[in-house]
Amino acid sequence: MSYDTVQDYITDARVLLQDQVIPYRYADAELVVALNAALLETRRLRADLFIGFMENIPQYLTNDDTTVPIEQPFRLPIVYGVCGHALMRDQEDIQDARASMFMKAFRVMLTGSTDVLNAQGGSA
Amino acid sequence: MTQRNYRQLLLQRAQVELTGASAAGIRQVMYEVFDEFFDVSSAWLEDIPFTTTPNTGTYTITPLATPPGRITRLDSVLDSNSIPQAAMMPDIGTIVLRNTPNTAMTLTAAVIKNVLLPCEPNGFVEVPDVFIQKYFTGLLSGVLGKMMLQPGKSYKNDQGSVYHLKKFEGVKTAARVATIRRNTQGTNSWSYPQTFRTSGQRGGTAVGNDQSFGSPP
Predict the structure, then answer these.
(1) Phi/psi class of residue A20: alpha, beta or left (left: φ > 0; alpha: ψ in -120 to 50)?
(2) pLDDT band for position A51 (50/70/90)?
(3) pTM for the whole thing?
(4) ipTM of model
(5) Cβ burial, residue B79 (10 Å; 0-12/13-18/19+)
(6) Residue A73 and residue A93: Cα distance in Å, rounded?
(7) Which residues lie below 8 Å from residue B205, measured CB to CB, with a gap of 6+?
(8) CB contact under 8 A, B122 and A51
(9) Chain B residue closest to A46 (CA)?
């Protein structure tokens, strides 16, 4: 797993979400939206990762083999961002905690600081 | 080691020190560091020969294409006997001689260069290898110091930034002095033998000389 394409991200997110059996709990389209949301948030937190396409943040429509142009060390937090965003739709205590955990990991891995969470009023 | 590898080495060393820094971010800062370094030190000199034509005092010069750089200042213009010729550069790349030559001769303009802003989104700044080799630790400190100033990053470090930028400041100064002294040890600043002077300071008044456009004695 090298997290090169949209498919790579969605496939691994399904592992973390325990959603690998058809019919899926989270549809492909929903996870693609979650990936897009994670990329938008990444752009906000780490603009340096989008040098060259600052005004044209990559956004995707389908779960395919389109490349996601992110430096390798920053790909795992994006998977966590996808999972966190997907889990946020649920209204169960366990899922809420997991969503918070994934979103926290996503932000801390990108910024290296929990101060960012407090400053932005994010859930910790 | 190729030029790209020297810059790659600088990038990798910075990544070791800066946990969570992106290569793209460091490459951007590398441009800023080199720009500041060359601007302060004037260390990047390039000799550009050009041939004069009778009764023409203005000439256009073009720097070498590789590595690409932009001319920022004129250091000197020498004739074929290494005697300085009074000249200025009112527009970048345009040499204006004070004394319009009446014969064809070859002059050499020494210009001070600086880096070009990389055009490619993730492009490395182009810079001669020799400067990375000679000032590696100082340039690395420049990159680290500037990166550590960035807010909201895992590698933000105020104390570290002060330390590294101070070190970078010292290297810029050392490079400037080395350039003025033309990399010599224990000598005065570079100057031509005074017998070459064509103007003096008779009467105790500072006057212009062939290095400047001051009033003739």
Answers:
(1) alpha
(2) confident
(3) 0.79
(4) 0.77
(5) middle
(6) 31
(7) none
(8) yes
(9) B153
